Automatic annotation (TrEMBL):
Superkingdom, taxonomy of origin: Eukaryota
Keyword Ribonucleoprotein appears in the UniProt entry: no
Signal peptide limits: 1-23
An annotated Gene Ontology molecular function: hydrolase activity, acting on ester bonds
This protein's UniProt keywords: Glycoprotein, Hydrolase, Signal
Origin species: Vigna angularis var. angularis
Protein name, entry field: Alpha-L-fucosidase
Length: 384
């Protein structure tokens, strides 16, 4: 081949390279344009399921943003609310809430106190009938009925049948399973329990895949040992923990270690699913690290000490939760309402986060900086 031939080959090759690079750049910058969200989880993402199914929520829950109780375990919005807003979608209605709801852009099957594994406790014992398996079954029913409504021309308030494959499926569950395992430490093999949790979680993800789900946004579980109700300061008088019991932020080490063990196995499972189902996107989101970063830098980020609880009373082993009335200790009336400025607190009620803290965490995770693969949520449909 002569010089001119080599020259033209080089030009063509370079042009192809530029075209491929441009295509990749376009692909990496495009938004998935999710038409809907389907969420599965516990109280960290319940937007009204338990409130609709059992006793309605009451103020001061919801006071900061909604100015009324709307079934969320916070003074305002949850992480899922901020995710929906970022994606340009409406706040998710709870599947169990039949009054004045719209499911056009998705539905929320998450319910407070829910677990991955089935429970033997009722709502009145602090449990939930809505395990992950039940939530997925409710979704299947929702999808089936939605298709029938569209065939009858009655589907205006529901996702279009084609939206189910294009939607993002979000998950935030496992914290209550970890809490239950911690209560039974020494009575059962915690490693076997965690493995079973992850296996059951995986089975539900696979089942949703078989039903057409293709984009999975999976939160790991948060630092349960950093919840104020877990800290010794709120549990007993004059108790000094032994060395190594607490970390530098006052979090209970062995509780966080169990959460980390679950998270590691969950991440390993997500990696395996990603390799098995090449036409789906599985994004693992390290919410544990995002929350722990906030707790570690609370004062720097404008919050009070992370052990402080905004709503409720948790002192000297006495626990009265946010919204409790007529509470008396040693003959004295105790106030269990809200603090003056919830936006200065990370913890709303000792277990759940405030609107301000949830917003802080959501702003960190939507960028993809805590995700594997590191995809922002707007582009999480792209295959790694």
């Amino acid at each position: 081949m002569g010089f001119l031939g080599q020259f033209f080959v080089a030009v063509i090759s370079f042009s192809l390279f530029l075209n491929i690079a441009a295509a990749e750049e376009t692909k990496s910058s495009e938004s998935c344009g999710f038409p809907a969200i389907f969420n599965f989880g516990d109280s960290n993402s319940d937007t009204g399921c338990m409130s609709a199914a059992f006793y309605p929520a009451a103020l001061p829950y919801g006071q900061t943003f909604f100015h009324e109780a709307v079934g969320r375990a916070s003074d305002g919005r949850l992480i899922i609310d901020f995710l929906a807003k970022h994606l340009g979608l409406q706040y998710l209605s709870a599947y169990m809430d039949s009054i004045g709801t719209s499911y056009e852009q998705g539905a929320n099957f998450g319910a407070a106190s829910s677990t991955i594994r089935k429970q033997n406790r009722t709502f009145f014992d602090g449990g939930s009938p809505f395990s992950l398996q039940i939530q997925v079954a409710q979704f299947i029913q929702f999808k089936t009925r939605t298709a029938k409504l569209y065939k009858r021309g009655q589907g205006n308030s529901f996702p279009r049948p084609e939206d189910f494959a294009k939607a993002i499926y979000t998950f935030d569950i496992g914290q209550n399973d970890i809490a239950a395992a911690l209560q039974r430490m020494g009575q059962e093999n915690s490693e076997a329990v965690i493995s079973d949790m992850v296996d059951q979680f995986s089975n539900q993800l696979i089942y949703l895949y078989s039903q057409g789900a293709r984009t999975f946004w999976i939160h790991n579980t948060g630092p349960i040992g950093c919840l104020p109700v877990a800290m010794p300061i709120h549990n007993a008088y004059n108790y000094t923990p032994v060395d190594g019991y607490l970390d530098q932020n006052g979090c209970v080490v062995y509780q966080n270690d169990m959460a980390k063990e679950f998270n590691t196995k969950l991440n390993d499972t997500v990696v395996k699913l990603r390799a098995l189902y090449l036409d789906a996107s599985f994004v693992y989101v390290d919410v544990f690290s995002a929350k722990y970063e906030l707790i570690s830098n609370a004062k720097k980020e404008g919050f009070v000490d992370p052990s402080e609880i905004c709503c409720g009373y948790h002192e000297g082993g006495n626990h009265f939760f946010c919204g409790d009335f007529n509470v008396t200790i040693n003959g004295g009336q105790i106030h269990v309402g809200s603090c003056q400025d919830p936006s200065s607190h990370i913890s709303w009620d000792g277990v759940h986060y405030t609107d301000a803290a949830n917003g802080w965490i959501a702003n960190r995770i939507i960028t993809g900086s805590f995700s594997d693969p590191p995809l922002p949520i707007t582009r999480s449909c792209l295959l790694a």
